[in-house]
Each structure stands twice: as structure tokens, then as C-alpha cells.
Amino acid sequence: xxxxASATPTQALPASCPDNVVARLQGRREGRPVEMLVxxxxxxxxxxxxxxxxxxxxxxxxxxxxxxxxxWVPPSALCERELEGSFLVNAVGSGRWLPCADLRExxxxxxxxxxxxxxxxxxxxxxxxxxxxxxxxxxxxxxxRVGGAERDCQAEGVGPGGVQVGAREAVHR
Length: 173
Hints:
Elements (H helix, E strand, L loop, with lengths): L2 E10 L7 E10 L2 E10 L2 E8 L14 E8 L13 E2 L14 E2 L9 E8 L2 E9 L8 E6 L6 E7 L2 E4 L2 E5 L1
């Protein structure tokens, strides 16, 4: 037991541990000064979503998938974002907080979706078929396998259902 104990936050852990902190605990024991580092969990007051059931990565969420609460929650769970219609990036177990960073707009292009690939150059337009190799969002890069090709080409999300590769662009069929 420490006499005259005081605690001071000394270190927020790296971004991979946003909900934890190390605190310096100081006091006296049997008249001698004592100092120790104690790990702890941060909690802040705010709005967050808690999973009502196990949610798979890649799910588009519905209102009944999670309860929205205003309470003391881990910082990573703070989320004013509307839950319904959000895309869940990583799986979340039942009763766990949904990290706001794992909620996104649904992708523009879904993995396995068939695309028409268009190559345009001055006076030339070529079309082919392709398949999205992963989900893709606006401005992000994704792989597209063009029919008959040995390798994927890299594309960038440029609009609803569309990706672009240099002078080539792929759009929904």
C-alpha cells in the first residue's frame, strides 16, 4: 500500500495500442519514496457502437448489428458516424466495440466483380473483360485481372463502379 500516492500519465502507447497508456505511480511505502510504471486502459466519454453479434469483415452493416451507446469507451471506439450502410473492414466479436477506423463507405468495386476494361488513346479505344481482385474505394489502388492476362494490372478507384490504369479505365458492365 502506498501513502500519498499520485499518478501521472507518462506515455501513450503506439498507434497500434490507442486504448492503452502507461502511468507513473509515485508515493511512499514505509517512509521510503516508491515509483512504478503501471499499464492502464484509457476510457473517454462519447458515442460508440457495440456489436450485438459476431460481424464478419466485408459486411455492410444494418442498424440491428450493433447498439449505439453514449458511455465511457476506448478512444478507438469513439464514433459519431452513422452505422447503417457502413462497410466493416475487420471482423468484430459479439459484445466488442467497433473501432471507428474499421467503418468505411461501401467499396466502389467489389472483389470478384466483372468489369469492362477500356483502353483509350488518341483515335483508339479497345475493350476487354476483367475481374476485380479485391474491393476498391475512391482513390485507392486495386488489382484487376484482364481476361487472358498472366498478371494483374493495378488500377485506382475513380468513381462509382470505375477504376483507371494509366490511359486504361475499367467500368462496370
